[in-house]
């Protein structure tokens, strides 16, 4: 990792959540999964997509898993072992926000979430990368790789595996370069784009 890139990577604070939610919403605006969850044309789509990252980012922050780079123009949402799924208390606290985000699409959100949970709960303890993205205009400068490496170095030190679900083909090469390999298949609900589960053993 280049030293100048490494210097931009740090753990996020509560003051970063708003900017990172906007950064990740921009990065995922055309992502196949988000286009399925909240298709173009639904009411207040941009704000609803942003709120997804605000809610998940806040929960990640509470567990020390939110990272930022490039002055907030890149971010990663991780969860430590045992916290990839929210607790009953967290779910209850977040429910009003998710109902506002999902609206009439709430059933679609629940179907996708259930499909991911079925695959996920069979896995041994690991760090979970839920989202990683860079604001358009700053993509291709290595910030995603720097964010990945910062946490994967910790995984190696702690002898912990890492896991993610890739939502688009173009990201697979990045993940493979960092040691991830395809790990089984996900049985997604009808109409949902395919996702690729990927696993990385510590080095």
Features:
203 residues; alpha+beta; Aminopeptidase; seven-stranded mixed beta sheet; 8 helices; 7 strands; 45% helix; 16% strand
CATH class label: Alpha Beta
> Major β-sheet, in short?
7 strands, mixed
Categorize the overall geometry.
Answer: globular
Strand content: 15-25%
Distance between the termini: 16 Å
- Total number of helical segments? 8
Here the CATH topology equals: Aminopeptidase
The strand line-up of the biggest sheet is 1-2-3-4-5-7-6
In the CATH hierarchy, what is the architecture at level 2? Answer: 3-Layer(aba) Sandwich
Question: Mean pLDDT, nearest integer?
Answer: 93
How much helix is in the residues? 40-55%
In terms of quaternary structure, what is this? single chain
Number of domains: 1
Which structural class fits the helix and strand makeup? alpha+beta
How much is the radius of gyration in Å? 16 Å
| H/E element sequence | HEHHHEEHHEHEHEE
Q: How would you name the CATH homologous superfamily?
A: Gcn5-related N-acetyltransferase (GNAT)
Give a description of the structure.
The mean pLDDT is 93. The chain is an alpha+beta fold. A hairpin with a 4-residue loop joins strand 2 and strand 3 (74-79). The two termini are 16 Å apart. It has a seven-stranded mixed beta sheet, with helices on both faces. The chain has one domain (3-200): Aminopeptidase (3-Layer(aba) Sandwich), CATH 3.40.630. The radius of gyration is 16 Å and the shape is globular. 45% of the residues lie in helices and 16% in strands.
Lay out the secondary structure:
Layout: H1 3-6, E1 10-11, H2 17-27, H3 32-37, H4 45-62, E2 66-69, E3 74-79, H5 88-102, H6 106-120, E4 127-134, H7 143-158, E5 162-166, H8 172-177, E6 181-182, E7 196-200
Helix pairs in contact: 2-4, 4-5, 5-6
Organism: Geodermatophilus normandii
InterPro entries: Acyl_CoA_acyltransferase (IPR016181), GNAT_dom (IPR000182), Trichothecene_AcTrans (IPR052523)
Pfam families: Acetyltransf_7
């Amino acid at each position: 990792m280049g030293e100048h890139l490494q210097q931009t990577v740090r753990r996020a604070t509560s003051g970063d959540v708003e900017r990172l939610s906007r950064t990740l919403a921009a990065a995922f605006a055309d992502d196949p999964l988000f286009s399925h969850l909240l298709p173009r044309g639904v009411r207040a789509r941009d704000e609803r997509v942003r709120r997804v990252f605000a809610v998940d980012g806040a929960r990640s922050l509470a567990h020390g898993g939110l990272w930022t780079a490039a002055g907030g123009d890149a971010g990663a949402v991780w969860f430590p072992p045992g916290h990839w799924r929210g607790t009953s208390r967290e779910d209850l606290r977040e429910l009003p926000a998710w109902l506002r985000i999902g609206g009439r699409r709430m059933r679609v959100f629940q179907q996708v979430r259930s499909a991911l949970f079925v695959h996920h709960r069979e896995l041994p303890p690991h760090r979970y990368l839920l989202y990683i993205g860079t604001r358009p205009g700053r993509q291709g400068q290595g910030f995603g790789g720097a964010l990945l490496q910062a946490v994967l170095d910790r995984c190696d030190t702690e002898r912990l595996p890492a896991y993610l679900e890739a939502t688009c083909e173009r990201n697979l090469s990045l993940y493979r370069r960092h040691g991830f390999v395809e790990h089984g298949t996900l049985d997604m609900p009808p109409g949902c784009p395919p996702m690729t589960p990927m696993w990385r053993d510590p080095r």
